[in-house]
């Protein structure tokens, strides 16, 4: 879905490309961190039983992430908790 008009998309691109490389990197890293925090908040809200138990919460997060490792790359391992 794209609800951004072509004129606004062009303006956004112009503004972003007007930033320095460092500013764009910082923006990208902040967006990645925000996405990660949103995912964690969603998992916490669906698994309130892990409140205050960091090890249990980590296990739930890893179980969630393993669903997105269909090729079995093994980058998420329960034994890492």
Description of the molecule:
The chain is built from three helices and no strands. The chain has 81 residues and is an all-alpha fold. It has two domains: 1-46; 49-81, no CATH class.
* Rg value: 18 Å
Order of helices and strands: HHH
| Percent of residues in beta strands | under 5%
Distance between the termini: 37 Å
Tell me the overall shape: elongated
* Unreliable stretches covering 5 or more consecutive residues: none
User: What profile does the largest beta sheet have?
Assistant: none
Query: What share of the residues lie within helices?
Result: 55-70%
Task: Give the overall average pLDDT.
Answer: 86
| Overall number of structural domains | 2
Output the structural class. mainly alpha
Task: Count the beta strands.
Answer: 0
Total number of helices: 3
Task: Provide a brief overview of the structure.
Helix content is 63%, strand content 0%.
Q: Secondary structure elements and their pairing?
A:
Blueprint: H1 6-17, H2 21-46, H3 54-66
Any key phrases for this structure?
0% strand, mainly alpha, 81 residues, 3 helices, 63% helix
């Amino acid at each position: 879905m794209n609800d951004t008009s072509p004129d606004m998309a062009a303006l956004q691109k112009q503004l972003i490309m007007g930033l320095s490389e460092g500013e764009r990197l910082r923006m990208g890293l902040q967006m990645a961190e925000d996405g990660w925090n949103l995912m964690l908040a969603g998992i916490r809200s669906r698994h309130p039983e892990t409140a205050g138990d960091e090890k249990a919460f980590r296990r739930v997060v890893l179980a969630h992430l393993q669903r997105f490792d269909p090729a079995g790359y093994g980058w998420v391992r329960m034994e890492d908790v």
